[in-house]
Amino acid sequence: MRSNGGVTTTPRPDAPALADLRTRFAAMWAALEPVGRDGRSGGYRRFAWTREDHDLREWFAAECRARGLDLTTDRMGNQWAWWGDPDAAPAGGNKRGGNERGGGKGIVTGSHLDSVPDGGAFDGPLGVVSALLAIDALRAKGFEPHRPIGIVNFVDEEGARFGVACAGSRVITGAMTADRARSLTDADGTSMAEALRAAGRNPDALGPDPETLRRIGTFVELHVEQGRALDLLDEETPVAVGSDIWPHGRWRVDLAGEANHAGTTRLADREDAMLGYAATVLAARSAAEARGCVATVGKVAVTPGGVNAIPSHVTGWLDARGADADAVRAAVQDVRAVAEQHGGVVTEESWTPTTAFDPGLVRRLATRLGGIPVLGTGAGHDAGILANAGVRSAMLFVRNPTGVSHSPQEWADPADCVAGVEALTSVLEDLAGGAR
Ligand SMILES: [Zn+2]
To answer: What is the distance in A from the centroid of ligand 1 to the CA of 381?
Structure first.
């Protein structure tokens, strides 16, 4: 970090009044809008270590530079921008704040800029844009933080390219090993190591990054809500506090058959991998219903992939989640049993246990914001990975009127987005300004 340290205390002359937030928000949104947007679907294709990802990282760096923030990149390539120096000795404290709850020195916010295939505009970018605008709003007030404030842009949160969600936070916390990350491959067979090299990064640098984690005293991620809890509540509540994340995992299902001609091969002679796959997909649905959780098979690869060829191999990916970890595990066992009856193999790709955000922090945020609702969610987030690594974390959710997410239809009203920025501003003011 920079050696001269200290916290900027002079409001920037161009810092906006709160009334300008909506205009500022619209301008930043417009700058991001074309990056990775599919002309036909209107959805986004922003995948880790691609051209689009590069452009988004450059945009983030430029926004941080324009605000005079100190930008660093950790061992995985996540970008961190600091207002104040998290490595400087705190007044009356020890040099290294430590990562124990309540310890550490920085108040960090932010989210991610990547997307799922044909994703929406809000999942991720809303948290990054809101973080930058919250800093503007704090400076407009002449706020002087007692603790440094950081903004993070986590890389590869969706796992759209290499199959493991929250890869950026998993690697720096050690939840995923560097070897595993490097060897993950995308649909074209490109490994993450190769993708990193092509993007000008050194894959050998990957690994746990305690130095980066030590700087985070508290992490608050703002995110568009991915359900309708707020919409169904009332008209006056555009923001909620996230209390916990359901346990969730991903499994790969492989079924083997034998390729042959779709016209000349008698039904009795076929070894059709698709049949076992179909049974497995239906089993996932009924297991989820029986166990009270949710299960989805949303990605499939068929070999050879010809309309007139019997499939010799089908690989599908199962995503399962629920409030109760045992129920999710049981549902996946049900699916595994059916897949194995058809000669299939089910391999666990990731498992994230129930994540409870810091209860004291959740209460503090909800109280600070006037007693707003507290919600659990079925969606995974980097905030959850950090919480499981012992970082004091929580989330803010901004209302989504349809609840649709991971789709071009994902939406949040501009007024609600500004309410989110104001809530985040208030939370940062509380956490970074207080002596607690
Ligand atoms: Zn997200």
So the answer is: 6
Task: Report whether pLDDT(97) > 90.
Answer: no
Q: Distance, CA 431 to ligand 1 centroid (Å)?
A: 23
d(CA 411, CA 415): 12
Tokens found for residue 286: 């009924």
Q: Does residue 284 contact residue 335 with C-beta atoms inside 8 Å? A: yes
Give the per-residue pLDDT at 135: 96
- Contact indicator for 312, 286 with CB cutoff of 8 Å: no
Q: Has residue 28 got a pLDDT over 60?
A: yes
Residue 405 Cα to ligand 1 middle (Å): 9
Beta bridge partners, 320, equal 249, 295
Give the pLDDT confidence of 213-272 residue by residue, as tens digits: 999 999 999 999 999 999 999 888 999 999 999 999 999 999 999 999 999 999 999 999
Is residue 223 marked as binding?
A: yes
Task: Kindly list the distances between the CA atom of residue 142 and the CA atoms of 9, 15, 130, in Å, as whole numbers in the listed order.
Answer: 7, 9, 18
Average pLDDT for 12-28: 74
Rg, C-alpha atoms of the chain: 23
Domains of the chain, first to last: 18-246+354-433 (3.40.630.10), 248-352 (3.30.70.360)
Question: What SS3 state is found at 380?
Answer: coil
Give the amino acid at 190.
T
First-to-last alpha carbon distance for the chain, in angstroms, is 24
3-state SS of 97-159 is: CCCCCCCCCEEEEEEECCCCCCECCCCCHHHHHHHHHHHHHHHHCCCCCCCCEEEEEECCCCC
**Whose CA is closest to 274, among 307, 241, 232, 247?**
307
The number of residues in the chain equals 436
For residues 273 and 312, the answer to whether their CB atoms sit within 8 Å is yes
Condensed to tens digits (0 to 9), the pLDDT of residues 153-212 reads 999 999 999 999 999 999 999 999 999 999 999 999 999 999 999 999 999 999 999 999
At residue 169, the 3 state secondary structure works out as helix
HSE at residue 236, side-chain half, CA atoms within 13 A, is: 4
Strands 345-352 and 260-261: unpaired
Q: How far is the CA of 235 from the centre of ligand 1 (A)?
A: 24
**Is 248 labelled as part of a ligand binding site?**
no
> Residue 15 carries which DSSP code?
P
Rounded-to-integer distance, Cα 222 and Cα 127, Å: 5
What per-residue string of b and e applies to 396-428 under the rule 16 or more CB within 10 Å gives b?
Answer: bbbbbeebebbbbebbbeeebbbbbbbbbbbbb
Is the peptide bond prior to 414 cis by the omega test (within 30 degrees of 0)? no
